Amino acid sequence: MSSTYLHAFLMFLLVVTAATVLLSDRDAPVAADDTEADEADEADEADERLATTDDIVAIRAEFDRMLVVKGLVTDGQIDLIRHGTKSRAVVTGMRTTGHAREDFREVELDVMVNRPGGGQFPAHETALIPASALTKVAPGSVVDTYYRSGDESAVAVCVAPR
Questions:
Q1: Structural domain of residue 143, as residue ranges?
Q2: Tell me: the pLDDT tens digits for 23-54?
Q3: Which of 66, 115, 126, 150, CA to CA, is 20 to 30 A from 48?
Q4: Contact 109, 94 (CB under 8 A)
Q5: H or E, element range at 125
Q6: Tens of pLDDT, residues 107-140
Q7: In this structure, are 34 and 88 located in the same domain?
C-alpha cells in the first residue's frame, strides 16, 4: 500500500519537519559593530542543538500516524515496513478496484515473494499505488515487499512513482 516514492517523500518531510522544529529562526537583525556580531553569533550557537535519535523517532511516528489517518497505509503495513523482512516479489496478477485516495489508486496484487535465504511464497495484497506508477505493478514486474519471517500471511508492497 506504500511505495518507495512514498518512503522518499516521508523521509523528506521528516527532515524538513525536523529542521523546522529544531533549528532556530535565522532572521536575526544585523549587528552594528563586531562586538554585537560576535554576541549574536554566540547566541545563535547557543540556540542550536543536534537532532537526537529520540527526536527523529518521534517525528517519524507522527508522520506514520498522519499516513494512517489519511488512509494511505494501515497500522499493519507500517509495522511490516518498519520491522519486517525486506524482499523482492514478482507480480503475477493485478486488478484495479476502482477506488482512489489522493493521487493513489487501489489495486489488488498477487505476488510471488522471494525469501532472502532462498525459496518463495505466494501472497495477495491490496495496495494504494501512485497513479503515475500503475504500469510498475503489471504482471511480470518486480516490486519491493516487506513481510514477517514467521508469518507470511501478510505483505506490504512498495512501488516507486514513475
A1: 83-158
A2: 555 455 555 555 666 666 666 665 677 888 89
A3: 66
A4: yes
A5: strand 120-130
A6: 999 999 999 989 999 999 999 999 999 999 999 9
A7: no
